[in-house]
Amino acid sequence: MSSKYLRVLNKKPVVFTKNDVKKLRFTKYYINNRIYLDADNMFRLLHFDYVDDLIIDLFSIIMSTQMDNNNRIRIMSASTYYPGAPDDSSEDTLKDYFEDTDVTLIPVNLNRNHWILVKYYNGSRNFQVYDSLQSENYESIKIFLSQTFDVPINQIQFETKDVVQQNNGIDCGLYVMFYIYCIIKNYRIPKRNRKYRINSEKARPNILSFLLGNITEIKGFTKNENIQLRRMSGNTKIYNKTNKISNGSCSTRKRT
Hints:
This protein is of the alpha+beta class and 256 residues long. It has a single domain (2-240), classed as Adenoviral Proteinase, Chain, CATH 3.40.395. Helices cover 30% and strands 17% of the residues. It has a five-stranded mixed sheet with strand order 4-5-6-7-8, covered by helices on one side. A three-stranded antiparallel sheet has the order 3-2-9. Strands 1-10 form a two-stranded antiparallel ribbon. Helix 5 links the parallel strand 4 and strand 5. The protein is globular and about 55 Å long.
């Protein structure tokens, strides 16, 4: 099933015209007064740049609304373990996630340049790591996990999952979203295999279309189309529009 989903991700996109792209420059999308989509992170998706924590957060929120009622999974905000994030970006307390929850998914940014997904079965000592680059060194997040989940740091065990890998330096955020999707939908994630890859060129406009098509259904959604945003540099890419999900990219968000 997961390989079929990869084919959906990689299918031919339909188009973001020049007029569509122009409109995006003057629009901000909010949920409960917090910006989740603006010109900066939307253009990052289209211009093959890194995917930031807000894109992953928005994707996670949408997936949470599509979960089966019996699916006892919570997804932590990607800003919760994001080096340099403002204090108010991690308001959510772990008690909220533990209550009536069996599994917690934690998007984690390693060293401000690589996204991984950590899956935790509440009450255990084992943390499963879904890493599209097989980094193998996760010591830097042990203190965070220990304090967050009340697990003694010397008892934390990492289990690195054999999962499909990225073939460039910017798509880790896309793969984190793909892993989240498969876990939520209970699909088997393809193992490390050259046969299965996310096609970044096709998937990026697809995921932006998916986010734009679903954010309006989220409680607390508002939109501001009258904000004059700075002109984005670089050539504008033209794509086909589709309502299917795609993938996101690697690094982190610049904070000012």
